[in-house]
Amino acid sequence: DQQVKQNSPSLSVQEGRISILNCDYTNSMFDYFLWYKKYPAEGPTFLISISSIKDKNEDGRFTVFLNKSAKHLSLHIVPSQPGDSAVYFCAASAYSGNTPLVFGKGTRLSVIA
Amino acid sequence: DTAVSQTPKYLVTQMGNDKSIKCEQNLGHDTMYWYKQDSKKFLKIMFSYNNKELIINETVPNRFSPKSPDKAHLNLHINSLELGDSAVYFCASSQWEQSYEQYFGPGTRLTVT
Hints:
Structural class of chain B: mainly beta
Number of strands of chain A: 11
Oligomer: heterodimer
Strand content of chain B: over 45%
Helix content of chain B: under 10%
Distance between the termini of chain A: 38 Å
Helix content of chain A: under 10%
Radius of gyration of chain A: 13 Å
Order of helices and strands of chain B: EEEEEEEEEEE
Largest interface: A-B, 24 and 27 residues
Largest sheet of chain A: 6 strands, mixed
Number of helices of chain A: 0
Largest sheet of chain B: 7 strands, mixed
Number of helices of chain B: 0
């Protein structure tokens, strides 16, 4: 039972354009959402997060949007750069020290120069 | 300086053998985790330790035994390895109060033949 779903396994975007990565979740107990980025042969690295009390969080070129009623979040990267090419994992948790992160399957983003 | 390190990076072994993977973090975090990324690319929590105390123990065969000698180390010992144990194992760490922001090691690719 996938509680966090990333339905697009891959996405190709031209350099300079916007990349939009989507994520859906099913568990209404989740109240904290994160995006992690992973390069080959490396561990995931934390990118950006959003609490359920917000609907938007911005950090430089990265913006995460949360639509709680639709149980949907998205990551926008503007402008996309070749160095952004990686696998992006969506993750969710109930904000508690003893609640594990639940990860989606990842979306591979390729930014073409 | 490597924040979260794992050894070995690659491990090839035969069915039935016993092996260990080591993890160390120099971030001063009090919570450490083991994740398994299987062939379907899902990252799933296996265990978490807070101040050397086991907090999360997901449905994992008891052939897997984590050991935390101190807050900076969390090792994973696997007995009687099976083909299905082949995966990439990631160690991660965080502060308990910010368990949503985890720092991952580079992963250990385990291949059981």
